[in-house]
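User: I'm preparing a small set of examples for a lab meeting where we compare how different chains pack in three dimensions. I only have the primary sequence for this one, and I'd like the structure in token form so I can line it up with the others. Please keep the answer compact; I'll paste it straight into my notes.
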Amino acid sequence: MRLLHLMSAALFILVAFPAAAGHVDPYKVMEEAAQAYGKSERYADARAVLSKALREAAHAGSLDPVYAILYAMYADTARFDGNPSFALQLTDEGLALALSAPEPDTDVKNMLLVSRAYALADLGRYAEAIGTVRITALWMGERFGAEHRKELEDEAAVWAQKLAGDDPNVAGAPVVELAVTLLDQAREALDAYDTARAIMLASRAILPDGTAVGGTEVLSINARAQTLVGVAYGIEGRPAAAVTALRRVAEILCAGPWDGKRPAALLPAVRENPAIRDVAWDSFSYLASNAVAVGEPDLALAALATVEDLADNPARRFALMVQRAGVIFSRKDYREAERIFVATGRDAEAVGDRLNASLADFYLAIARLYLAAGDDVATAREALVTAARRAADIAGSDLQMRQYVLTTATRMLFMRSFDHMDALPLAEPAFQAFKARQAALGGYDSGQEAARRDQRSFLDIYVGANYAAARAK
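Assistant: Understood. Below is the structure token output for the 473-residue chain.
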């Protein structure tokens, strides 16, 4: 009875977890599903238990990530009953749910990946199945023992023999190559604003520390993977989740524990290996920007100080100065922020960096708006509108940057006076930029809903501005 075999494998994981705090306990549901199958030996009966539980567990139309484990069992019952297409859909839904947690559970993720590999194989998609299971087998071996790893690797070898005209050597491809391929695909997905796919691919690339490959390669791959996950969360407008993911990168790259209050001590490999240097720069820079968004300026400054000596080109030095100025601005030291933005704009113009020069002017206009008083406020507002339009035009096809500039300017105009009429000059172009990026995100699973939540304050201002304009007519 294959379902009971699945349950016995799952028990290795279940013993590590306490009972769920919600009104539906996923582990109890799994036991009930196994019992339902045991009575009738009909997979449909087990699926009925799982389907009912998932419906009842939803709150306001969404599920907590703790219920992702049910999707692994649900998928296997569908596959055992001859429906691998539905099984594949269920594993992808389960992975999306599991990876939506700020601290995704590695065991649950790998259970779902194993189920996904078997579904792919049943569909004849052997190369994809092998690619899915190779890294997962390493995790399963580390977690549950060599026997479990060998079982998965033996399956991969069988699938390789069935590839026929495809490349049978894929089963023996080094795990490092597979991980790098997954990370490249994750980067492409991120560039296309497909954040859900990016998170899934990057999470699949993470290697266990005990992997029998070079320690530097494991460090580089895992740091890059966690950085991509953090960046994806940031794009979705989930800065708290981004900070959590990017703090994990710090754990990988630091020589010891880091409290986030002072510069971290990085491993020697960070400075010795150019690729790891780049990952360190990216991860700590993104950590700083997201830390500001969640109200942790000290963490942001410590992150920037950690990679200050990695700012070895004009673009990085500009980014470092702007981010520091942003922290200072968040502390309402507008005069110091003005000084930094003047200097950064001058430096960007000197090297012909039009985008960063326009962004420096944009930030400078915001600082001067908040420094202005009396009759100077109106002039400062006009200067901000002009600077925002110019920066948005130079950003061109970078939808995220266009939206950021225009919606941020709209917020700043409103918050300076709390008069919706002041937001009118940019409210409509900002809304059009918001809609363009929503279309690019492509759907809920790609962070569309998260992006809407992130922009709620802007949307409130947009509605208020239009209402104020209508009343003024």
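A couple of notes for your slides: The mean pLDDT is 82. The two ends are 74 Å apart (CA to CA).

User: Perfect, thanks.
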